[in-house]
Specification:
Homotetramer. By secondary structure, the chain is α/β, with parallel strands linked by helices. It contains 17 helices and 18 strands. Helix 8 crosses helix 15, helix 12 runs parallel beside helix 13 and helix 15 packs across helix 16. The structure holds ligand LZDS7PUF and potassium ion (K). Potassium ion (K) binds next to strand 5 and strand 6.
Length: 497
């Protein structure tokens, strides 16, 4: 896992690296600019591309000047630079790069407070106005310039952070930030990239290594950790010879109602495809024909058999499509000591009967999306605040709270907040959450501790969707296709051929 650090901690890492290695600050800027240029050249390989670089006068602006020079050295001959001289300060590295730029034929236009901005004829804009040094919302000339660039609709590639977007903390409205198509960020993605409020400011982000001291960064105190493929490889237990269905646990899915049987089937199918040795569905009897037809591998349990099931299963997933039945079923579930996943209608029941939250067994996994989360724990104005509440609740109640979104935040009982990087907008459709519940239940049934089950389940769920997009350029993926893709995604990650 990679530690996600704040803008202030990035400055610490910057200082530490400069003090403890032979690298000077200006060389670090050159590394960063070169790393930016490498990705930029992949995005815009045509060297005739007309590029406008907009620089401030701090270190983000210094990067911009170095990028202009490096592109010109690589035969990008149509590069121009704007400098926003709206403040009185100039960083040393900006000044040094300004001196280097004067030795090139690159045209430079400087703008002072109150100046009008001309049209932008270039094909692409590089945003190096302000970076992680942002310490207040944009206003005045800065805001005018950002809005001028936004209004052109030209693609923007931002250096480190789009101008106006704080690296962490509560985010400002998106009309006050530069809207970048790509952000090439240094050393670590910034925390705000994972919040939905940054969607208009960032379409894609890339992260480049600029040579900051990794060991130092990993020791910095931070609640936020980004899940990586290597975590999945470490957690996943390979299937050994001579194992059998009993080795991989028995999962019970409590789901479905007359009009929402599909949710139950999806959860059961995902459980099956995620490797549970046995899967039993507790669904209304009228769903039996559909279950037997679609999922002959899954067993059925009726109301009479339910009391005998609690001791026979290894994990329980409750909620998808459960409707009003949630109210009486949750009572039975909370009397077991089985690891469990609580989703959808079971969460709605909990939000209407909050005293039941206190009865949940320790380390139960709750999987709310934003609306379910706010119904459970109160309305929130920003994702930053919502994530802080998730952390407080997970610690206070010793629960695992999985706050679903494109980037899911996993709040653990020890106070850590994990960020899942996989998943994509093609997956934004009904049934996706039911699939996740089935997957998590399957991993719990196989004996993974809740902490490992959520990492595996979340990462694989998104990775299966990402794989489908990569393989076939699909713009929409139905939940069923994600289910079918789970075994191969797991195989590709953990059993490379
Ligand atoms: N360690 C690294 O990751 C490296 C980062 N690099 C690049 O450096 C920037 C950060 O540079 P910094 O000089 O700290 O800050 P900025 O360039 O982002 O901002 C410059 C100054 O602008 C002022 N400021 C802040 N907010 C506003 C605002 N809303 N309106 C106007 N002005 C604002 C502030 O100065 P004050 O005196 O006004 O407080 C900023 O200091 C990072 O993003 C990378 O691009 C290095 O190149 C490599 C190492
Ligand atoms: K920027």
């Amino acid at each position: 896992m990679k530690t996600i650090i704040t803008a202030a901690q990035t400055r610490e890492a910057d200082r530490y690296t400069i003090e403890t290695t032979p690298i000077a600050s200006i060389d670090l800027m050159e590394h960063a600019s070169l790393a930016f240029v490498t990705i930029f050249m992949q995005l815009y390989p045509d060297k005739n591309t007309h590029v406008l670089i907009c620089s401030g006068t701090g270190n983000n602006g210094g990067d911009g000047l170095a990028i202009a020079r490096l592109l010109q050295e690589r035969s990008y001959d149509a590069v121009a630079v704007w400098i926003a001289r709206f403040g009185s300060n100039e960083s040393d590295e900006f000044a040094a790069n300004m001196a280097r730029l004067y030795n090139t034929p690159i045209p430079i236009t400087e703008f002072f407070p109150g100046d009008e901005f001309p049209p932008i004829p270039q094909r692409v804009v590089v945003d190096a106005l302000l970076g992680s040094g942002l310490n207040k919302p944009l206003q005045g000339d800065w805001l005018r310039m950002v809005q001028h660039i936004n209004q052109t609709g030209k693609p923007v590639v931002a250096v480190d952070v789009p101008t106006g977007l704080p690296a962490d903390g509560v985010l400002s409205p998106s009309e006050h930030t530069l809207q970048a198509h790509h952000v090439i960020s240094f050393q670590r993605p910034k925390l705000s990239f994972f919040f939905p409020e940054s969607a208009k400011s960032i379409r894609h982000f890339h992260v480049v290594d600029i040579g900051l001291d990794e060991a130092f960064i990993e020791k910095l105190p931070s609640d936020f950790k980004l899940i990586e493929p290597s975590d999945i490889q470490q957690i996943y237990r390979h299937r050994e010879p001579f194992t059998h269905k009993g080795t991989y646990g028995h999962a019970l899915i409590i789901a479905g109602d007359i009009q929402t049987m599909g949710a139950a089937l999806l959860a059961c199918e995902a459980c099956l495809y995620s490797g549970a040795g046995l899967t039993t569905a507790f669904i209304p009897e009228m769903g039996l024909a559909a279950l037997n037809t679609r999922l002959p591998e899954v067993m059925y349990c009726g109301v009479d058999e339910l009391p005998g099931m609690w001791n026979r299963v290894d994990a329980i997933g409750i909620g998808p499509g459960l409707g009003q039945r949630a109210s009486w079923l949750i009572d039975g579930v909370t009397h077991t000591d089985k690891p469990m996943v609580i989703d959808a209608d079971a969460l709605t029941f909990l939000s209407q009967n909050r005293e039941w939250l206190d009865r949940l067994p320790k380390y139960s996994i709750l999987t709310p999306h934003m609306k379910e989360f706010d119904r459970l724990f109160g309305a929130h104005k920003s994702w930053w605040d919502r994530v802080q509440t998730a952390k407080e609740q997970a610690v206070a109640r010793q629960l695992v709270i999985l706050l679903k979104n494109q980037y899911t935040f996993i709040a653990l009982p020890d106070g850590n907040l994990l960020i899942n990087p996989t998943g994509n907008p093609a997956m934004a459709s009904g049934g996706m959450g039911d699939v996740l519940t089935g997957m998590l239940t399957a991993f719990l049934a196989q004996g993974y501790p809740p902490h490992d089950a959520v990492i595996l389940g979340c990462y694989l769920h998104g990775a299966a969707g990402d794989q489908l997009v990569a393989d076939s350029n699909k713009v929409v993926i139905p939940a069923r296709q994600v289910v079918q893709a789970i075994p191969a995604t797991l195989g590709n990650l953990c059993h490379p051929r």
